[in-house]
Amino acid sequence: MSNSNRKLIIHIGSHNTGTNSIQRALFKNRPHLAEQGISVYNQLRDGNMRKGGKVKGWIDSNKGTIYPGFSRSLAANDGNIVVSMEGLSWVFDRECIARLQGELVDVFSDIKIVAYLRRQDKQVVSHHQQGSKVSGRKAARFYGNQPTALPQYQPHFQDYLNYSRRIGFWADAFGDANIYLRIFERDLLKDGDVVSDFFAITGMETHSNFTRQNESVGFVATKLGHLMQQRNVPPTIRDTLLANLGSGGKMLPSAQEAIDFYANFRDSNKSLNNRFKLSGHKYLFDDDFSGYPSLRNDLWTEDLANEAILGMLTAINDIPVLSPEEETTIRECAMKIEARNPALARELLRKTLRSQP
Amino acid sequence: MTIGPEISETACPTGLRFERMHNSGRKLLLHIGTHKTGTSSIQKALYENQACLDDLGYKFYFRGKGGVDRKTGISGGWFDRNEDPRDGLRLSKELAETLGNTEGNILFCQENLSWVFSRETIQSFHEELKKHFEHISIVIYIRRQDKLAISHHQQGSKSTEFFSSVFYGSENKALPSYQDYFQKYLNFHERIALWTDAFGKDQVQPRVFDKKYLFGEDVVSDFFNMLGATETIRTDWVNESNGFVRTKVNHLFNRIDMERHRREKLNRRLDNSGRLAPLRQEATDFYSHFRESNCKLNQQFNLTPEEFLFDDDFSSYPNAPGDEWTEDSANDAILSLLVGIKSIPAIWQGNANILLQCISVLKEIDIQSASELQQLYDKYYPDHARPGLSRSFRDRSARMSRKIMSLLTNS
């Protein structure tokens, strides 16, 4: 396969820097991008196409590596490719990234890596909140399930949040000149918008205007979400319990907590800025923590705890509960199914009676 | 039952022994409460010591209105709720006649008589009773109002079947916020006056529920001593108070009238340690609404040497809120509830496909079972064909959101 004149743009995140908006915009603009000779890659590992611009399933999150076949799958598409996959931010393995580069360079003559970076305290407040959702299981595993705005700092956070090291792996593999780093701050983005900014820096044209979707959830749902992760509450139950809760309020740490957390990453930010000359700030990002309250507001108050518990209880009170006779029916059905399909029988009992055969 | 040394003549510091009061004619002794003054323990002791009561010339009447005898010694069914909870309970007219038609001297112990606020009812009750009994005596234990309300409000959290749950409301605190109508129950001077006006002052004996004024420092011993028992009767204290988390969550259960089986399942998971306690100042403020009436009652009955009947010691209350969620207690409660919720055999939205798969398999094995499961499916997923959350589920969610906000606003 020749690498003549084929371009590849890989958007590697980070999480919670408008990636969903970028992916939606890419997907919606597929026809227009096709006219420009660009395909939006949205293939799953099993070969199916994903209904949307987000590419998932290629990252082995346990090992922090990319499953084999990703580069082959990219190469199998014709023309220039753009792929947006923030899951690549979970890749902490230098060799894996170098290997990917080695595989792609034979196919694409021009490979650009795009990453948006956000000051680490803000990044984690947002990312940890995402970890409270079903869709945020990886974040929950990484940051833990503490029902607070900021997780307590752990040394392994450096794997993700030490941008100098993590982005450095990509830059070492693909070359500094091919790394497009952007600071995720409204003032520094084109038109104050990450989608416009992404299209501008990658040189792609877009037809539509996009408004960024705010997908953050409120205080109560976030804290409950963390607690549900702790107890492995199945999505079906979770959806029911959360359906009644308001989306108001936002969990925030105190300014001092945020400063202390961020202090763990300042020096690495300085190294990254020295290497890529991204901003006039010595430590890459500004030192403005005025957006945080002086006292943390991520702990339960009497009213919020009552609201949360009442919301859950109201949902529980309203769901249909099986009568003892219906429980018996299900048990008998499960016994009959077991001979033919034991796994299905177990699933029936687990999901309805919450028990095992 | 513990049998102790014989009680001395001077061991009964307040009131008179009833057996000394009346030597002839039928006697009736009514124990009318109040709640949370050891009434359950007294009822249990009365039930367990009926032979002793026989010796004292009393028959313990504990049959309910429906003819049911309970081993707890609690006679139920004689009361109905008034439409407005502020009006307390209605007393069945049949009680007086039933007691009257029972042979012998009767002892009836029902603290719900404390919920009867109607002067006319109490007068009618007396009119009917006096047709049957020559001597009627009334005993009532009273407790300092802040302590009583805390205990009573906690009891109300357990179930909406307790009238205290509607009288004090389901405010998720140790002490309910003071309401003027609380006077109907907690103004002992006025409430006891309803009984003295009907039965006569000498027939009513208030007793102070405070160790230092109780014979043997125990309410059961005190009650039996008052009856003239020569043995010290004690029983295990029937104390079923809930702890901090369980009380707070149960107040919330009450607000939504939580279905009983679900409530029981969830309660089993909840921590039951600790106690709700109001701020010291809250307790003092609450009690201040009743001090003057206590003073009047004490002047009338000369119950204690204290000017305001009860002591003024509030030192056991904390100076920081002891009845509000903390980060840890709220997290613990929610985590426990989540474990309980997961164990409920419920039909959750999102499990429809499992049932469909099972129906499909069963059709090849046992058509009857397939049909039964299909009926369940049709019942619980009537509009599952629609993608995502069903419309009824979405509508229900919207309704519930409004309900929660309204519950929180009105609390």
Strand and helix map with partners:
The complex is a heterodimer of chains A (357) and B (411).
Chain A: E1 7-11, H1 19-28, H2 30-35, E2 38-40, E3 59-60, E4 65-66, H3 70-75, E5 80-84, H4 94-104, E6 110-117, H5 120-130, H6 137-143, H7 158-161, H8 163-174, E7 179-183, H9 194-202, H10 219-230, H11 235-242, H12 255-263, H13 266-276, H14 302-318, H15 324-340, H16 342-353
Helix pairs in contact in A: 4-8, 8-13, 10-14, 15-16
Chain B: H1 18-21, E1 27-31, H2 39-48, H3 50-55, E2 59-61, E3 79-81, E4 89-91, H4 94-100, E5 106-109, H5 119-129, E6 135-142, H6 145-156, H7 163-167, H8 183-186, H9 188-199, E7 204-208, H10 219-227, H11 244-256, H12 260-267, H13 280-288, H14 291-301, H15 327-342, H16 352-365, H17 367-380, H18 391-410
Parallel strand pairs in B: 1-5, 1-6, 2-5, 6-7
Antiparallel strand pairs in B: 3-4
Helix pairs in contact in B: 4-5, 5-9, 12-15, 16-17
What does this molecule look like?
The complex is a heterodimer of chains A (357) and B (411). In chain A, helix 8 (163-174) packs parallel to helix 13, helix 10 (219-230) packs across helix 14 and helix 15 runs antiparallel to helix 16 (342-353). Chain A is α/β, with parallel strands linked by helices and 357 residues long. Chain A contains 16 helices and 7 strands. Chain A is globular. In chain A, the strands form 2 sheets. Chain A has a 5-stranded parallel beta sheet with strand order 2-5-1-6-7, sandwiched between helices. A two-stranded antiparallel sheet of chain A has the order 3-4. Chain A has helices spanning 19-28, 30-35, 70-75, 94-104, 120-130, 137-143, 158-161, 163-174, 194-202, 219-230, 235-242, 255-263, 266-276, 302-318, 324-340, 342-353; strands at residues 7-11, 38-40, 59-60, 65-66, 80-84, 110-117, 179-183. Chain A folds into 2 domains: 7-303, Rossmann fold (3-Layer(aba) Sandwich); 322-357. Helices cover 45% and strands 8% of the residues of chain A. Chain B is an alpha/beta fold and 411 residues long. In chain B, the strands form 2 sheets. Chain B has a 5-stranded parallel beta sheet, sandwiched between helices. Chain B has a two-stranded antiparallel sheet with strand order 3-4. Chain B folds into 3 domains: 9-150 and 163-241, Rossmann fold (3-Layer(aba) Sandwich), CATH 3.40.50; 244-274 and 322-342, no CATH class; 352-410. In chain B, strand 3 and strand 4 (89-91) form a beta hairpin. In chain B, helix 12 packs across helix 15 and helix 16 packs antiparallel against helix 17. At the A-B interface, helix 10, helix 11, helix 14, helix 15 and helix 16 of A face helix 11, helix 12, helix 15, helix 16 and helix 17 of B.
